Amino acid sequence: MKPEVLILTGSENDLEVMQETVKELEKFGIGSRIIVSSAHRDPEKTGRILRRAERDGYSVVIAAAGMAAHLAGKAAAETVLPVIGVPLNSSTLGGLDALLSTVQMPSGVPVATVSIGKSGAVNAAWLAVQILSTRDKKLRERLRRERSKKREELRKKAGRKNA
Description:
five-stranded parallel β-sheet, 50% helix
């Protein structure tokens, strides 16, 4: 499976959470690659990776970082590919610092930002699928089926609780 989604993390500590993104993408048959590269500790390497992302065949970039969380902004500055930012809870502020760093971007350099932590990692995958489905009708139908399945699962659980 050729990787279509580049997942960047600012630290190896982020890998466990971002495996959730990989799992969700795999459910849809979408390949991904995770690279650890810090916007602060190795900005040159990070820039090279991002400037090559389109040429390397990626269609979407997911960038996950905690604390100052400039990785998604760095990604958006280095590529025209869609960038999804995942703020991570790696500080005493519970991820609020990462959320604000990720979502506060200047006009013309957008980062689609999802929620903090594991749910954000999962939603980043779903958003990437939505973006990719704009050019792939089969993927769009699969997305519809998966959403319908989730809805039915929720209804069944709610029915058991209300019985």
